Amino acid sequence: MSVKTKFKDWLYTNYPGSKQKVENFFADAPLLRKLLRVGFTPTFQGWGMSTFTHTPWGSATDLGDIEQAFNETCSQLIELVKSDGFKLTQFKPAERLSMLNSLMWRHYIVFWSATFAAKYAPRGTHNFVECGVCDGLTSFLH
Q1: pLDDT digit string (tens) for 32-73?
Q2: How many CB atoms lie within 10 A of CB 91?
Q3: pLDDT in tens, 87-126
Q4: Could you write out the DSSP letters of every residue in 21-68?
Q5: How far apart are CA 114 and CA 51, in angstroms?
Q6: Rounded to an integer, what is the distance from CA 36 to the centroid of its chain?
């Protein structure tokens, strides 16, 4: 753990509300933020939410089986969308990839839920139903 991280942990733990004050200070000082190379860029933004923490599918080196399978499935989906092998009629062509990225959290929840259900349901045929389908986007994640 770096000295900077240790200091931030100590500060935020011992002085409640200090994190917001620091973020507000740097938000109002773009030149200082650029000079110090300080940024508060979310690791995920989309689907009406954002986070500054690591996402389950993120760039960590110790991803589990579900996270690795999710990343592989998303890569396949993105390639299919790029090549027009998977038609997304609900988004404009120029917005398709950015919309897919903004829906990653939703897609992770669907993928994890389907994987969990299939793993712990009695053996045999599994029937998955997607309601409110436009292009069948989330059904690709089952």
Answers
A1: 776 776 666 778 888 888 887 778 888 666 778 888 899 999
A2: 17
A3: 888 888 889 999 989 999 989 998 998 888 888 888 777 7
A4: HHHHHHHT-HHHHHHHT-----SEEETTEEESS--TTSS-S---HHHH
A5: 24
A6: 27
48: alpha, beta or left, given left = phi > 0 and alpha = psi -120 to 50?
left
Q: What share of the chain is helix, strand, coil (3-state, %, to 5)?
A: 55, 5, 40
Contacts (Cβ under 8 Å, ≥6 apart) of 50: 42, 44
Predicted confidence at residue 4, as pLDDT, reads 75
Residue type, position 45, single letter: Q
Condensed to tens digits (0 to 9), the pLDDT of residues 95-105 reads: 999 998 999 99
Report pLDDT for 38. Answer: 67
Contact present, 66 and 119 (Cβ < 8 Å): no
